[in-house]
Amino acid sequence: MKIILLFVACFFMIAGVSCFRRQAPVTIGQDAGKDSLSPASSSGKLSKAEALREHLRLKADSARIYCRSGGLSERYCILVNFNIHSGKKRFFVWDFEKDTVLYSSLCAHGMGRESTSEKPVYSNDPGSYCSSLGRYKTGVSSYSRYGIHIHYKLHGQDPTNSNAFKRIVVLHSHSLMPDREIYPLHLPLGFSLGCPVISDAMMRKVDTLLKESKKPVLLWIYDEPVF
């Protein structure tokens, strides 16, 4: 009897080990699959490109609410983050319908007061030659002596940029503005006396977009960390 019981016990032990060996590769394979998806995802961290896109998407969500309540275009908006290195793209045309960046480029900030190529100083004062933070509504186009000879009037919508029209702060291009990123170099001062200034190639694209728009477009200049 003892021999029979010992035999039965051995049988079940062998069967259990066999089942474990058959199942083990499946478990290991699932874990390996998770690890291979994305190191950034498994660690809970976004890449810089992903972080920038998420930052812009959240800002665009706020912009769309403002556009809807203010009667501005809900097709596009322009986001300019002067916290981003001046040698990198920091001027973004956001497409609300596609929920993504349509165009992006370098953008110069004002040279006034104690501004440096690395960091702008902001002011709403006439004659300061500084950039002003806040939301702007695009106005009519007119002749510019710079770039492609077109500029767009900007009407400040916040206390921080209420003097924009009086200061002749406009959106325009400059022929010496690079089309591509120049990081780690900064843009030199001198392109802007307070205006958001972009390259000629980008201005042609923006000009087409603004001409086709039936409503004023929101241009939002801000200074917020992305990473």
Task: Describe the fold and architecture.
An 8-stranded mixed β-sheet has the order 3-2-1-8-4-5-6-7, sandwiched between helices. It is of the alpha+beta class and 227 residues long. The protein is built from 4 helices and 8 strands; from the N terminus they run αααβββββββαβ. The relative contact order is 0.17. The radius of gyration is 28 Å and the shape is globular.
Helix-strand layout with pairing:
Layout: H1 2-37, H2 39-43, H3 48-70, E1 76-81, E2 91-95, E3 100-105, E4 134-143, E5 150-156, E6 170-173, E7 197-198, H4 200-212, E8 218-222
Parallel strand pairs: 1-8, 6-7
Antiparallel strand pairs: 1-2, 2-3, 4-5, 4-8, 5-6
Can I get a quick summary?
This protein is of the alpha+beta class. The chain is built from 4 helices and 8 strands.
Listing every helix as H and every strand as E from the N terminus to the C terminus, the arrangement reads HHHEEEEEEEHE
Question: Which descriptor suits the 3D outline?
Answer: globular
Count all strands and give the number: 8
**Which class of secondary structure composition applies to the elements?**
alpha+beta
Residue fraction in strands: 15-25%
CA radius of gyration: 28 Å
Number of helices: 4
Helix content: 25-40%
Oligomeric organization of the protein chains? single chain
Main sheet: strands, sense, barrel: 8 strands, mixed
Q: Which spans of ≥5 residues are poorly predicted at pLDDT below 50?
A: 1-42
Mean pLDDT over the full residue set? 86
The N- to C-terminal Cα distance equals: 73 Å
Strand arrangement, major sheet: 3-2-1-8-4-5-6-7
